[in-house]
């Protein structure tokens, strides 16, 4: 017997290293959630791939567990997904090879061809995407050149959203929001970019149907709903890019509002009234793409390493703490930071383990730790990781400020928003108040809002987001530590220029 709830909505958040299915009521209260972790494959030093069929199995498990735990009828579901990753599929929607992920950096040569054919600035003005290995376009170019048989045999080329939507409904549909991150999309026209597709030799019928976020694609297939233990066939709606869904879920529905999302990657999203494509954002390699509300736009900075750096350190150097955390019911990250110094560490960490993000977009850069001594501890190193990531955050906020943006606060979401230590560190280093919302997993709620729009629960996404967001706590900059961190930040700004040539040689 289901709960007496007017309507239950599910947001399925598909990240690079894990997924989470969350069931909400229409007020944004979490009724139940379930998550799964999965891996990333690195078959070559610059490659990053993922078995999306395995991700689908994990997603199914999470959906079934969350739905059962909520004891409610799921009326609608929408997806929040990591962007740019692309996979070729056959006529039945089965992956022909692992997906090439956004963090994959193999496509330097293809980007050189794009610069020569279209021009770097011209591509940015048309697509809102800086030329970079993260984009879907050069990944498709690489596939066509290096795996011609796969290219020829593929029925379609899908991103994560449309891959999973096709599993649920049998229809290949992609949100405008996610499509606008591919570099195959004309940002102002709101369509696939025909000149780019012609250059690629890709018929648009081999891509998914463009669908506005928050509109219904179809109902979930009866067989799948039955296998998941669902009591009905929920409406499957077009969702969006995970960071964009997070921006919606935390109330970035007015121009100038900003958030920091800390998960596998760390991202700043800034809401825009229109696609601002000025010189500062162009030179800073900031991407500009469609907001899931269908009216606004988003400017996005990116540190691809993000929280993945801390996870790498945890798994590679702290297996005993992972075991202890599991045994005692603690969080391994909290144990790792227990003995960290209160103020700035004596270390500087350059978090370029997967190349640098914005504004440099240097795929040849690498991570570095400077200042190690025999007295350096794991806890100090862990905090240095948080500091290095947050220095990179400030670099990007300074860039947005130079572009004319006035940012007075940061709304924090993602796994990193659960750490009060990290949120205070963000405030101290950036000099901005950091606001923690009630729902830190805002990407799932943003996707659920879009499901609610498709099922008639909400009239529009923006008003639903504005009505539901609750900002529970503010972390204000602490003048003492903030002053010390300002001095340390000045040293951090020298780190990449000093190490660049060595890192490139390596």
| Rough outline | globular
Could you report the average pLDDT, rounded to the nearest whole number?
Answer: 94
CATH class category of the largest domain: Alpha Beta
What oligomeric arrangement do these chains adopt? single chain
Q: Biggest sheet: strands side by side, in what order?
A: 17-18-16-15-21-22-23
User: Which structural category do the helix and sheet elements fall into?
Assistant: alpha+beta
Work out the radius of gyration: 22 Å
Find the CATH topology of the largest domain.
Answer: Nucleotidyltransferase, domain 5
CATH architecture annotation of the largest domain: 2-Layer Sandwich
Q: Give the tally of β-strands.
A: 23
List the helices and strands and how they pair.
Elements: E1 8-14, E2 18-25, E3 30-37, E4 49-50, H1 52-70, E5 74-81, E6 87-89, E7 99-100, H2 108-117, H3 120-127, H4 136-146, H5 148-153, E8 156-158, H6 160-169, E9 173-175, H7 176-179, E10 185-186, E11 191-192, H8 194-200, E12 209-211, E13 216-219, H9 222-227, E14 235-241, H10 242-249, E15 258-262, E16 266-272, H11 279-283, E17 287-290, E18 297-303, H12 307-317, H13 319-328, H14 332-337, E19 348-350, E20 368-370, H15 378-402, E21 410-413, H16 420-430, E22 434-437, H17 442-455, H18 461-468, E23 471-475, H19 479-492, H20 495-505
Parallel strand pairs: 1-5, 5-14, 9-12, 15-21, 21-22
Antiparallel strand pairs: 1-2, 2-3, 4-7, 6-8, 10-11, 13-14, 15-16, 16-18, 17-18, 19-20, 22-23
Helix pairs in contact: 2-4, 10-17, 12-15, 15-16, 16-19
């Amino acid at each position: 017997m289901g709960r007496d709830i007017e309507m239950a909505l599910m947001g399925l958040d598909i990240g690079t290293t894990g997924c989470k299915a969350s069931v909400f009521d229409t007020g944004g209260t979490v009724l139940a959630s379930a998550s799964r972790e999965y891996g990333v494959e690195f078959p070559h030093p610059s490659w990053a791939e993922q078995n999306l069929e395995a991700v689908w199995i994990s997603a199914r498990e999470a959906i079934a567990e969350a739905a059962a735990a909520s004891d409610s009828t799921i009326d609608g579901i929408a997806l929040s997904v990591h962007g740019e990753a692309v996979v070729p599929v056959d006529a039945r929607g089965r992956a022909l090879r692992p997906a090439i992920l956004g963090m994959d950096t193999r496509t330097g040569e293809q980007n050189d061809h794009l610069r020569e054919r279209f021009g770097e600035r011209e591509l940015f003005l048309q697509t809102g995407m800086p030329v970079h290995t993260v984009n879907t376009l050069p990944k498709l170019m690489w596939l066509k050149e290096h795996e011609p048989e796969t290219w020829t045999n593929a029925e379609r080329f899908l991103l994560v959203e449309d891959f999973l939507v096709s599993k649920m409904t049998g229809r290949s549909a992609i949100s405008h929001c996610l499509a606008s991150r591919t570099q195959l999309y004309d940002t102002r026209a709101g369509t696939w970019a025909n000149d780019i597709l012609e250059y690629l030799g890709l018929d648009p019928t081999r891509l998914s149907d463009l669908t506005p976020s928050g509109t219904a694609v179809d109902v979930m297939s009866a067989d799948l709903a039955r296998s998941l233990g669902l009591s009905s066939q929920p409406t499957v709606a077009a969702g969006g890019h995970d960071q964009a869904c997070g921006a919606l879920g935390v109330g970035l529905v007015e121009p100038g509002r900003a958030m920091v999302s800390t998960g596998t990657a760390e991202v700043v999203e800034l809401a825009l009234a229109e696609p601002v494509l000025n010189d500062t954002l162009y030179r800073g390699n900031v991407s500009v793409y469609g907001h899931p509300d269908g009216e606004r736009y988003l400017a996005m900075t990116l540190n691809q390493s993000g929280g993945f750096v801390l996870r790498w350190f945890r798994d590679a150097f702290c297996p005993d703490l992972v075991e202890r955390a599991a045994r005692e019911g603690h969080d391994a990250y909290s144990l790792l930071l227990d003995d960290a110094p209160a103020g700035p560490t004596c270390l500087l960490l350059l978090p370029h383990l997967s190349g640098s993000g914005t504004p440099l977009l240097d795929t040849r850069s690498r991570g570095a730790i400077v200042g190690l001594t025999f007295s350096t501890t794991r806890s100090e190193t862990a905090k240095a990781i948080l500091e290095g990531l947050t220095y990179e955050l400030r670099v990007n906020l300074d860039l947005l400020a130079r572009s004319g943006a006035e940012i007075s606060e940061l709304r924090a979401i993602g796994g990193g928003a659960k750490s009060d230590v990290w949120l205070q560190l963000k405030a101290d280093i950036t000099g901005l108040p950091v606001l923690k919302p009630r729902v830190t997993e805002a990407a799932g709620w943003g996707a659920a809002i879009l499901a609610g729009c498709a099922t008639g629960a909400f009239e529009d996404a923006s008003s639903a987001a504005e009505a539901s967001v609750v900002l529970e706590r503010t972390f204000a900059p602490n003048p003492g530590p903030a002053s010390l961190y300002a001095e340390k930040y000045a040293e951090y700004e020298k780190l990449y220029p000093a190490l660049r040539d060595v890192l490139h040689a390596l």
